[in-house]
Inverse folding.
């Protein structure tokens, strides 16, 4: 499909990711700060707002502090903290100074966090938890650990916003099938291209206010919510965490027009007696996990909102979306966004994509890169797909073993390896149980020593120092043996409902 014919583009609009700010994320932000410094950028409470001019000045000062502390262009900086204005300023300052941000889940435990430190080799970490700061220093004592308010002396005025389009901006870590997460390197141009496509497709304007309760260590909250707000010259009501009442209050008190969430959030919103208040929004977007078609339908009945479902990945930012002006089809993720080429190859058909938003490769992983890309430059997503009768993409499965629980990716292999460290457990197999709230409820089948019973509480306690809580099994079964074929290969499809099926 030619770019000019993309169904997401309004009449007379064309997709040009380099038109604003030279095709870099920081360039587009800098253009906005010059044009509308008085416009509200962040809403932080009933009487506390931050203008674009305020953010420019605060991030300029923060960038000077970081440079004075010894950080230079290309250095990696871990950002792992709860949402706050300080975190936003620090993130923006890092990118303006040419540093490379490594967003890291605040739920990571010591082993997970130390893997990121050892792999990315950061010069600094901006973190809000003393225990996690100790874990980082334990992995590399040279890493400078700072709280998000950057308690450092002021530094000199430095040149900002000079990044080139291909300069790295983010390294996002994705869980790997081998249990070792890989760092996807996204450039300034990758991020700018993706967010410009969304600005056009979602009709994102300076009049919009986003109720932003997604965490800022995830592509959905950071790469879409925050980056998109700044790119569009819009504003965001920054919520420290997701709570249904806080979302409703953002609508009534601050005039929110947008809400982005994961299916688990929409499930909880639908259970609230205030759910009808969401009818005041212009647009509700769901991503990071498949949205059940029945929840889509129920939500529309309760709110008159047709949730717009989309599809993206850490490695690619956003790829596909249902249209704003057009049919939003439950059970589908929509049509390719401007600039994105998509094809389905193989049997079963894997989704492959190419475009300016696609990352160039994994951090220091040439082996993984050779497997991830085709000879003609398409990225293999690892997701299986099909097109419905209207050409909308349906995610039909996964070519690689992956569960999505509450919007977060969980690779069973990583959980199985952690469980195997427990001396009470001889074998473990991890699968997903369909859940209307979680998507995949992490489920573990365990063979224990001497047929010993083992409680869910005991398993969670053992995993507490090894895995983030969202990776812990929510359902646990003890079995006498795991099902295997004649060659000894584990057959997970024969695990069901707490028992091992005798026949395939």
């Amino acid at each position: 499909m030619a770019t000019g014919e993309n169904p997401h583009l309004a009449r007379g609009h064309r997709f040009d990711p380099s038109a604003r700010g030279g095709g870099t994320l920081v360039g587009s932000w800098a253009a906005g700060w010059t044009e509308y410094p008085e416009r509200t950028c962040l809403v932080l409470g009933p009487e506390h707002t931050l203008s674009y001019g305020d953010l420019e000045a605060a991030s300029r000062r923060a960038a000077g502090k970081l440079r004075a502390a010894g950080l230079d262009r290309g250095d990696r900086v871990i950002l792992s903290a709860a949402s706050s204005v300080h975190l936003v300023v620090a993130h923006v300052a890092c990118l303006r100074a040419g540093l490379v941000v490594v967003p890291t889940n605040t739920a990571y435990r010591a082993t997970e966090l130390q893997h990121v430190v050892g792999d990315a080799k950061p010069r600094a970490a901006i973190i809000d938890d003393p225990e996690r700061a100790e874990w980082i220093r334990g992995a590399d004592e040279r890493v400078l650990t700072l709280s998000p308010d950057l308690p450092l002396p002021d530094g000199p005025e430095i040149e900002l916003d000079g990044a080139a389009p291909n300069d790295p901006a983010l390294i996002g870590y994705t869980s790997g099938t081998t249990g070792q997460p890989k760092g996807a390197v996204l450039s300034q141009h990758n991020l700018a291209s993706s967010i410009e496509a969304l600005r056009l497709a979602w009709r994102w304007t300076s009049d919009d206010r986003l109720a932003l309760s997604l965490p800022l260590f995830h592509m959905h909250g950071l790469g879409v919510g925050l980056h998109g707000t700044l790119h569009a010259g819009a504003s965001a009501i920054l919520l420290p965490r997701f709570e249904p009442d806080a979302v409703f209050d953002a609508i009534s008190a601050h005039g929110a027009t947008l809400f982005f969430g994961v299916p688990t959030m929409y499930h909880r919103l639908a259970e609230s007696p205030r759910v009808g208040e969401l009818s005041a929004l212009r647009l509700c977007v769901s991503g990071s996990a498949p949205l059940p078609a029945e929840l889509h339908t129920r939500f529309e009945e309760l709110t008159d909102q047709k949730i717009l479902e989309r599809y993206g990945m850490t490695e690619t930012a956003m790829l596909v979306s249902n249209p704003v002006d057009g049919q939003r089809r439950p059970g589908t993720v929509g049509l390719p966004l401007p600039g994105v080429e998509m094809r389905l190859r193989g049997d079963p058909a894997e989704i492959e994509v190419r475009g300016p938003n696609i990352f160039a490769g994994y951090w220091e992983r040439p082996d993984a890169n050779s497997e991830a890309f085709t000879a003609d430059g398409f990225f293999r997503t690892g997701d299986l797909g099909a097109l419905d009768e209207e050409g909308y993409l349906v995610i039909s499965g996964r070519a690689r073993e992956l569960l999505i629980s509450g919007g977060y990716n969980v690779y069973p292999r990583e959980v199985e390896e952690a469980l195997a460290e427990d001396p009470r457990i001889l074998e473990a197999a991890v699968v997903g149980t369909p859940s209307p709230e979680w998507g995949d409820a992490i489920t573990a089948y365990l063979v224990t020593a001497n047929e010993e019973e083992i409680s869910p509480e005991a398993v969670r306690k053992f995993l507490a120092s090894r895995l983030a809580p969202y990776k812990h099994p929510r359902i646990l079964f003890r079995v006498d043996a795991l099902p295997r074929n004649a060659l000894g290969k584990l057959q997970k499809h024969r695990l069901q409902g707490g028992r091992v099926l005798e026949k395939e």
